[in-house]
């Protein structure tokens, strides 16, 4: 990735160095950005020191940065690291001109922080993402963004340093709604893929063969390719857990209820995800919906132990 003079003009802060935060922050460092990071567990951030980052002890210590990103575990943490006693907005200022949050949270939690940021003279961009750490590393991440257009234009060069695709959808919290809609679709597609995979296998078709055909067809997608190794080899190492998917399904259903929008497929998939959690897969990848479907069909799955691509190979 090539650094540009534009990216070097601003000092950048980053809150949250989990799997996603680490991968995203690293892309900024690779672009030559002046980056300072904060993570509650400092040890997780320390590998970034060798790549040129600096580390601070509290989120409040990032208040002197021009722009601050956050990528944390959920709404409560986001509120704490921004408006808490030692949060980014806790001091007397000066503060960053822009806060960019990439966490998947509700519009309500986002609006709470936006109000606090506005009171401090800080613009805010919602920028939730589609993808996981491996997608980030492959340069294939997608970001949906909302907020004031001028603030988005300021954020865009840095978002493009992290992601392959950046989509602006309007002001306020609209990006939060788009990300929740994305995850409702994600859940429905995964359940449908599990159903047809089990049906084909019960007819005698290897999972690898069915998925190879689907991935080469007009129905194939980056997502179906990425989930193929999990379906073929029954590897449910989490990229996104069943419990987190249930959280997003609940967020989507709450919005739909408030707007009187029926979501019959989402309702059914939410029940299946709950059953998956109840069967012991809360912390496994949601691709384990395949196991639930196979059990309902009286099919015992075995790993095929085949090397199959993820679609992320470069």
What's this model, at a glance?
This protein has 314 residues and is α/β, with parallel strands linked by helices.
CATH class of the largest domain: Alpha Beta
Arrangement of strands in the largest sheet: 3-2-1-4-5-6
Total E-strand runs: 9
Separation of termini? Answer: 14 Å
Using the alpha-carbon principal axes, give the shape: globular
Characterise the protein shown here.
This protein is α/β, with parallel strands linked by helices and 314 residues long. It has 2 domains: 5-172, Rossmann fold (3-Layer(aba) Sandwich), CATH 3.40.50.720; 177-296, N-(1-d-carboxylethyl)-l-norvaline Dehydrogenase, domain 2 (Orthogonal Bundle). 49% of the residues lie in helices and 11% in strands. The chain contains 13 helices and 9 strands. It has helices spanning 5-8, 19-30, 42-45, 75-83, 107-119, 133-137, 149-162, 174-202, 207-216, 222-233, 242-258, 264-281, 289-296, and strands spanning 11-15, 34-38, 54-55, 67-70, 98-101, 123-126, 129-130, 142-145, 165-168. The strands form 2 sheets. The chain has a 6-stranded parallel sheet with strand order 3-2-1-4-5-6, with helices on both faces. Strands 7-8-9 form a 3-stranded mixed sheet. Helix 3 (42-45) links the parallel strand 2 and strand 3. It is globular.
């Amino acid at each position: 990735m090539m650094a540009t003079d534009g990216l070097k003009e601003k000092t950048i802060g980053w809150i949250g160095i989990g799997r996603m935060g680490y991968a995203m922050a690293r892309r900024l460092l690779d672009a030559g950005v002046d980056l300072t990071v904060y993570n509650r567990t400092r040890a997780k951030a320390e590998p970034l020191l060798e790549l040129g980052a600096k580390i601070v002890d509290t989120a409040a210590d990032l208040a002197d940065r021009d722009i601050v990103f956050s990528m944390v575990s959920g709404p409560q943490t986001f509120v704490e690291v921004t408006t808490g006693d030692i949060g980014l907005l806790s001091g007397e200022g000066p503060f960053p001109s822009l806060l960019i949050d990439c966490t998947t949270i509700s519009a309500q939690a986002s609006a709470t922080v936006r109000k606090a940021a506005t009171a401090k003279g800080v613009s805010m961009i919602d920028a939730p993402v589609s993808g996981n750490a491996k997608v980030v590393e492959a340069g294939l991440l997608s970001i949906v963004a909302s907020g004031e257009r001028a603030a988005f234009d300021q954020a865009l060069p840095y978002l493009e340093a992290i992601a392959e695709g950046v989509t602006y959808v309007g002001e306020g919290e609209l990006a939060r709604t788009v990300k929740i809609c994305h995850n409702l679709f994600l859940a429905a597609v995964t359940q449908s893929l599990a159903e047809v995979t089990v049906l084909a296998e019960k007819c005698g078709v290897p999972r690898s063969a069915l998925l190879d055909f689907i991935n080469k067809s007009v129905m194939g997608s980056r997502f179906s390719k990425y989930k193929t190794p999990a379906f073929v080899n029954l590897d449910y190492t989490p990229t996104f857990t069943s419990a987190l998917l249930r959280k997003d399904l609940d967020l989507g259903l709450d919005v739909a209820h408030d707007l009187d929008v029926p979501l019959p497929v989402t309702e059914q998939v939410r029940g299946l995800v709950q059953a998956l959690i109840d069967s012991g897969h809360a912390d496994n990848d949601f691709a384990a919906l395949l196991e639930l479907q196979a059990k309902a069909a009286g099919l015992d799955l075995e790993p095929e132990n085949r090397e199959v691509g993820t679609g992320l190979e470069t």
